User: Fold this.
Amino acid sequence: MSERLSERLRSVLATDCGSTTTKAILIELVDGEYRQTWRGEAPTTVEAPFEDVTRGVLNAAQEIQELSGRKLLRDDGGGILTPEQDGSAGVDAYISTSSAGGGLQVVVGGVVRSMSAESAMRAALGAGAIVMDTFATNDKRQAHEQIERIRQLRPDMILLAGGVDGGTRKHVVSMAERIRAARPRTRLGGGYNLPIIFAGNDEVRDDIEALLAGVSALEIVDNVRPVMETENLDPARDKIHDLFMEHVMAQAPGYAKLMGWANAPIMPTPGAVGLIMQTIARRRGINVLGVDIGGATTDVFSVFDGHFNRTVSANLGMSYSVSNVLAEAGLPMILRWVPFALDEKGLRNRIGNKMIRPTTIPETLEELKVEQAIAREALRLAFLQHREFAVGLKGVQKQRTIADAFRQIGDDSLVQMMKLDLLVGSGGVLSHAPRRVQSMRMMIDAFAPEGITELAVDSIFMMPHLGVLSTVQEDAATQVFERDCMIYLGTCVAPRGEQRPGRKVLRVQLSLPDGATVDEELSDGELRLWPCGADTPATATLTPLQGRLDVGAGPGRAFEGKLRGGEVGIVIDTRGRPIVVPDDPTVRVPKLESWVRDLGEYPDGET
Amino acid sequence: MAAIFTPGLKVSEHTVLVKDRRLPIEGEVLVEVGQQVGADEIVARTELPGKIYPVNVANQLAIDPGRLGEAMIKAVGDSVAQGDVVARSPGLFGLFKSEATAPVSGTIESISTITGQVIYQAAPIPVEVDAYIRGRVIEVIEGEGCVIQAAATLIQGIFGLGGEVKAELAMAVEAPADVLDVSAITPELAGKIAVGGSYATLEGIQAAIKHGLAGIVTGGFDYDEIKELLGYEVGVAITGGEDLGLTLIVTEGFGKIQMAPATFALLSKKAGSRASINGATQIRAGVIRPEVVVTFDDEQMPADRIDPGEPRGIAIGDEVRGIRAPWFGRLGEVTDLPVEPVVLGSGSPARVMEVRFEDGTVARIPRANVEVIEQ
Assistant:
């Protein structure tokens, strides 16, 4: 988009073409501020019988047109009316993201699994891809097994890395030979060669060209790991985006037309969400963790000390993949969050039926509680996978001290909960929970934030739209993000450290915006809520009552400062880290009931 | 406003069915447009590339990969038989020569003087695609397959295991609420597709496999039993490739749920006919439902391609099935479609419909929680 257009941007129509629904939002300049004003949605029309994504886009835009009275559709049916005319018709820009048709599916290869292959994986994930498989010379598979597997997969593209610049030649070429022998084919067919991006050792480019240029659409970019100590992911990421547009999108039904309508390149949905997360973290100078829990997959994003990571848990979700949550977590882990006794066989059938009828919604309170119990486990498992992936570069020589030997597993992760400032949740089960406190509780249980952490949810899943908007007009994207996208739930305070059961752990002194004050000593195992709006923060003094407990000011030290509220307020969680839930159902159910009651999660009298 | 559309399962005595029959990779199409084909008739064939065998020949010969070219007796593209000598090292002063032999019959795919690897490709594997249903070829997809159209009875299930099977339909129970257990599996059912009622027990399915039944169609069975049958859990509903010993189709869902009477009646009517069934299920994008197909005689086949048209939304009077608690598995008729959202017991607002169930109960149910029974 031209510089001039971004400067005079008065209105934008943005769509996200998801697998099932196409969501449209209208952003307008209102009294000098960008605001999201209207929204509309319609079923996505990539599949038969329509096979044209633009029909869903037009239907969603038409809904906004009807609601807002602003004419958005061209009379000739040729798409979105641009630019804006006399303030009541058209928009200055139309932009879109897409994850329809299964999103962007990439196969990744490298020499060493935990080094170049991992860097390549990070590049692909950061671009918004689903990584179908990761190959490396040390991935414990024989060469013929790898070749068979590459043959079976039908990705949108392959990203091959390997070797630092000037490093190994033999192993990189060996991986390329395997790819060549597999003769991989594209997912969408259409008679074009599979795009392969080579982002490895710059001295073997000729060898790679000789091997792969004839059997693929080969692209060569700078090495994702030019030296052991540094990653250089942007060139590979950018190339993935280019190829997504040129090859993948161009093959999908109706996308050629959609690309013609859009004023900025269409981005893969998770790539756009990652972009807005990074923008917010950079502009506010904070560490952010974001999650988008969908029907089939759960994406986790983190920006810690400027390091961005994204993971996709491809088989953890609330509908299509819900049985997989049961398989991976196990029934007892789900049951530990259900505040009533339940027939186990019945629960398994219920989860199976949600898998085969994924669009159903909980009608009763009991169904809702079960669904939210499953969501906690889906979120927890996706987060565990993210923490394991979001680590510093492996293969870099480091000086280790004796203290390192005593660090806990997982401490290598860049994602340190004590350092987390903002946790953002998105996806139906979080964004559309009947009470916001339910969303807050699900996120606290699943992510177990430590110290002082703000929590928020994406109101109507507009992060993808804002991500792509940030490439056009960053100010517009961040203004809408803060004012309309984010719904601040409040702050969670959770001491970290060993707690003695049944003893007082934390003295809580609060001055709330309504003038009320609090001075209480909380025991181990409590979950308490004090309502506090988002506009004026509460003043807090939080004093650990057991020696080494840390509320964010350091072990044993009191915290004094402001706590931001929100639609829920300030939650103090003294359940310990990891959160302790009793195994014995006769103890667990009353405990869960007391937490539910103290937070007011469900209507009066209901636990 | 965009139309609300709840996709349903088709239970239709007389419909026009169109089937794509495609090869996994390009090959030869054996039929022509207008041709009548039988269900077992081969319509396209191809050869899948043989298995790949990479062998580091330079290592075998203890030579530098750069010298592999000199040592090779065979070249890229050459055919080899298992045990043929493909490379020989020069040895030391003509002595201590070593040889490398082909591990498999096939062709040499590549020789690398960088890695020392020789890649062999075994002989190709023939693959054939049959018509699956009796019908008329209405389109040939060059190099890929064809499209077949037939007049047929079609019953879609909600979940299945196992792939395409063609066999005679036989009733194994008397009523849609009956349970298909071991006692229902008789020797006469061998090679046939047994129709059960509300529930198939694990023992009943295992007995059916043991007695060589081709398939089972049942209202429900327990989700737990998938693991017992397959040895693993199905976490995502993408099935069809399971090696179960028979094809299993569930028409209603997991648990004990009476088969919809219309479905049961139609299956009863078709008992004794040869059916084509497929358990393949894909709930995600590009939905595939398991199915039972019984085609009609040739003279009832439409000559021209029939366009199925676009799906329509739900209307008052439609037959529906509850697909979530507390109405799961209940059948009824739509009596009202209120426009305004209603706050559900869960606390969420949702658009609802009013349904009168078979026992006379009337309830307002989220539109997302019912499924139209499409005729």
The domain at 52-122 of chain B is CATH 2.40.50 (OB fold (Dihydrolipoamide Acetyltransferase, E2P)). Chain B touches chain A through 59 residues (CB under 8 Å).
